[in-house]
Specification:
The protein has 208 residues and is of the alpha+beta class. Helices cover 54% and strands 10% of the residues. Strand 1, helix 1 and strand 2 form a beta-alpha-beta unit. It comes from Novosphingobium organovorum.
Length: 208
């Protein structure tokens, strides 16, 4: 049985979705953010020294990092939702699996953090939006010619891309008018039964 240490409104929601898609058995241990700081509670440090989520425990292993967890889960499921067979699709899979956190999320997090600082911070946050817009235009261009990030089938790369794009729609300028293909992709993932089951399992989630 896989144990998911699930922090509310966090990247760990992707792990729940992944598990539901793969139909792997799991259990959830829930953690709530501090109401004032919005940080994870200190209890998570008892699971892993970084005190971050997602964290999973399975067969004596403790794993962190969303992309690494997704790859591990595909292996547990015999390769389902993993790397496609064709070279081009495989390269896109690797790219977006890591692009989600390596490139797409940093400016979104920076805008969020700066926006919480009165006056100067909020002004600075506006300067971040052009950086985010570059990413949103790139992502939109990628989804013009195919339904999923790696190709014709959904993969773990789509699971990874869900969090930054849901965050972008909530607070960083992702709109159907400017990004119709990206928003259509979001509608497709939200309509998936496994996604809906993951929401039920995980509880309140601000983005979906």
């Amino acid at each position: 049985m896989i144990t998911v240490h699930h922090l509310e409104n966090s990247r760990s929601q992707r792990v729940l979705w992944m598990l539901e898609e793969l139909e792997l058995p799991y259990t959830i241990r829930r953690y709530e953010r501090d109401a004032k700081t919005m940080l994870a509670p200190p209890e998570l440090r008892r699971v892993h020294p970084l005190g971050k989520s997602p964290v999973i425990e399975h067969e004596g292993r403790t794993l962190i990092e969303s992309a690494a967890i997704c790859e591990y889960l595909t292996e547990c499921a015999g390769g389902r939702l993993g790397s496609p067979a064709g070279m081009e699709d495989r390269l896109r899979y690797r790219q977006f699996l890591h692009y989600a956190e390596g490139s797409a999320m940093p400016p979104l997090l920076l805008k969020l953090a700066l926006g919480m600082i009165p006056l100067v911070g909020r002004f600075a946050a506006k300067k971040i939006q052009p950086m985010i817009d570059v990413h949103l235009r790139f992502i939109e261009s990628e989804l013009v010619s195919r339904p999923w990030f790696a190709g014709s089938e959904m993969t773990a790369a789509d699971v990874m891309m869900s969090f930054p794009l849901e965050a972008a729609k909530a607070r960083a300028g992702l709109t159907p008018e400017r990004h119709p293909h990206t928003c259509a992709w979001l509608e497709r993932i939200h309509a998936r039964p496994a996604y809906q089951r993951a929401l039920t399992a995980g509880g309140d989630y601000a983005y979906a």
